[in-house]
Amino acid sequence: MAALINIHNLTHHYGDLCALDSVSFDLQPGEILGFLGPNGAGKSTTMQIICGTLAPTSGQVIINGSDLQTDPISAKSQLGYLPESPPLYSDMRVDEYLGFCARLRKVAPSKVAQAVETTKQRCGLTDVASRLIANLSKGYKQRVGIAQAIIHNPHVIILDEPTSGLDPNQIQEIRNLIKQLASDCGILISTHILSEVRAICDRVLILHQGRMVYTGHISAEDKNALIIKLDANRESDYLADIPGVAQVERVDQQHFRLRLSATTSAADIAAAIISQGEKLYELRPDHSNLEQIFSQLTTGEMGT
Amino acid sequence: MILTLSARELRSLFQSPLAWSLLGVITLIHAWLFLVQIESYLKIQASLVARSSELGVTDLIIAPLFDSSAMVMLLITPLLTMRLLSEEYRTGTIQLLLSSPISPRQIIIGKYLALLGILSVSLLITAMLPFSLLLGAEIDISRVLASLLGLFLLLASYGAVGLLLSSLTEQPAVAAVSSYGVLLFLWIINLSNQSSLFDWLSLASHYRHFLSGLVSTGDISYFLLIIAACLMMTLQQLEQRCGKG
């Protein structure tokens, strides 16, 4: 299938400051693409450009076949966008606001009420439907912001830090919602929380100082790495011989990083270690891969 | 699409106390001016009759009323226009509009229609005063209608200027103050009787033709020109923000 978003050589300057430098990527249907980067890396700028609220200095944005420059109306009708701060009219009630957004996004008049109802349920807003947006807590405001982005069932959903300001339970709900939405559209999410990327994204794209420095899948390899903690004074050579262990790396005296083959689970490893008469103090998935990539790429000066 | 936007705009205006208090003030001030004019007319009525003067209620009550109405509205309109776009910039809601399948032109027309809506309400309030004279006097109705047309075009121009200035800043107060500046300047620019250009530029000289019952293409086009120019510049401003729309 053709890509939902196709970005080609996007460049943007704020005066002398180069915020984006020849960024190109695309987003496939059903994919959740995570946008990572330190503050000021150009994440929000890219998103604003894709959504047509900021004009790029140069470059091309194609959304589901429509060029944003030459055919903005049809390109924008495919989009749902949650900016960094949710674009809410604080003097409206939640129902009114969502109805307005639905009409603005060309939902057929007869279907507006239903779209509002469904979206409220999806985002958990039914209880606050008749409250003024000004009086909502930050978490609810954020959810109303997400609701306006998905009310018209867009093909492309762009969420700029969707979980900021939410409590852990709400974060989980929103992540579930995002995963659920991804079944029939492409989602672009910016965040600087690495665990979030790991939890929901299929692919990650790291921006640094306006340049794209890394793009890659959240690999199965990354998901299949374990950190284990063993008794300090025992031999550990047998680890490499456990079936399914592809690689053993000693982190320090007690900690080892194991890379597993795709079919091996943590339980197999635990059983194998115990059967050696070894004491297993700790066993957890290793998430350091993405952290390492991120900090390597975004700290210090870039090479070129 | 455009009407959705206008409806939201009007609703938010009328949900806030601002629109109501402004309409209240408009009514009060106009009514007071009207009563004062009637009173002074009654004082000199006898001498008018004695000198068999041609001046009647339309000249002595209605024309001065519309003349002061232009000034009152000059003070009120910028308060209505100041939030139109600057508030959207400030709260970020402009991003909602710009990322929706709606062109900047539609956004501006939607906002402007909403503005014309509320200005028409205030025009109706003003219009009720001269027509109330029908109860006890004869008035020159076509001249009143000409004045109303003039006032409408004037208010529409005020609104267009206000919308333009609101598109230039994120601060509603700055938008209001600069609208006052521009409108007042356009009003008094003919005070220096140096050149006919200044006279032509002045809102006042064109508006007063309407008050004397003179509806000319030149005056109408002057107002339409101001409105069109301001709306075009607003569009330019908005497009610059989001790229060619």
Q: What is the gist of this entry?
A:
Chain B: This is ABC transporter permease subunit. The complex is a heterodimer of chains A (304) and B (245). Chain A is built from 10 helices and 14 strands.
CATH topology of the largest domain in chain A: Rossmann fold
Q: Helix count of chain B? A: 11
Main pleated-sheet profile of chain A = 6 strands, mixed
Question: Which oligomeric state applies?
Answer: heterodimer
Question: Which bin fits the share of residues in helices of chain B?
Answer: over 70%
Termini Cα gap of chain B: 16 Å
The pair of chains with the biggest contact is: A-B, 33 and 27 residues
Class inferred from helices and paired strands of chain B: mainly alpha
Amino- and carboxy-terminal Cα gap of chain A? 35 Å
C-alpha Rg of chain A (nearest Å): 23 Å
The strand count of chain B comes to: 0
CATH architecture of the largest domain in chain A: 3-Layer(aba) Sandwich
Instruction: Please state the overall shape of chain A, judged from the principal axes of the Cα atoms.
Output: globular
Q: What is the total domain count of chain A?
A: 2
pLDDT averaged residue by residue of chain A: 84
User: How helix-rich are the residues of chain A, as a percent range?
Assistant: 25-40%
**Mean pLDDT reading of chain B:** 90
Going by CATH, the homologous superfamily of the largest domain in chain A would be P-loop containing nucleotide triphosphate hydrolases
Uncertain stretches of 5 or more adjacent residues of chain B:
none
- Total DSSP E strands of chain A: 14
